[in-house]
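hey m, so remember when u said the tokens were messed up on ur end? i reran from scratch. heres the input so u can diff it against urs
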Amino acid sequence: MEKVDRVMYPEAWAQALAACLAAKLGLAQAADLAPTLRAAEQEPAGWVFFRFAAGAEREFALAADLPTCARLAQIEAGQPATGGAAELSGEGREAVAALLERAAAAVHKATGLELTPVGGEPPAWRAAERAEIAFTLPGGGGLVLTSLVNAELAAALHQPMATAEAETTSKEHATVESPAEAGPAATGPAGPPPEAAQPANAGPADAQMLVPAPAAANADGAAVPGDGGSEDAGEAGESMPPLEKLGLLMDVPLDVTLRFGARQMVLKEILELMPGGVIELDRNVQDPVELMVAGQVVATGEVVIVDGNYGLRVDRISSPRQRLSGLF
């Protein structure tokens, strides 16, 4: 559950469903389905349900009306999505369930929350959170589904975020605290005055990200720069730059790259490449695209079209401190 951090769960389902549907329909971009997500005011009545378990008493369900189920079954079977079915057959329900289970696997990759299908009976619980997911099909018509989250799952989805924020707050206080404030046991030199360590207009998060770590002492008692014991700084190999130096770098242009995937090829294969050839990458079509800065992945998301150009809709992004750690 620790990976479900600031990710809108219905949005993860909308993106996963769009990717699965686009692959079945042969669309180059999931954005061609114009996925939309909005709040659902009422419980769906008389719809077809598909339920998933996410652990003890935690459940998620997708509800769809009959025309949507008929179109989903036709898309899964490779047929024109015309709908028009008077009822959903057992074979049609299995087709829809197979499509939704593939989407559930993609949601698992995006959020870390594993789901197990538990049947199609209407849930006995009342949804604590509801959202409507809609798609527009290229040939006309649409798909409308409602996501339902029960109270236990809703609480579990928000718990990791609260825990992470509490841990971050604890680390921030530990970072801002100077050696002189640590108590009588502190024997090192006194830290900088509070006004130097944290500007008046900077909050705790700014202090944690921008204040240089205190210098350590070697065996002779001399200060050793660049070794502050910061966890993020240790991973980067260097400490963060001081605040006044960082301000001078804000207008420096950086190359931003989208990485769709990679593959190793021998020289012979590269020399044999011809126009029309296809190179298969190590990433599925529903996997997120990576946004890279200075060779480091700072965010992931979905490729969209913006005014005829490629763009990226960001789903997950690292903290400002992690983004800086790869640049200094």
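this time it looks ok to me. The two ends are 31 Å apart (CA to CA). if urs says something different then somethings off w ur setup not the seq
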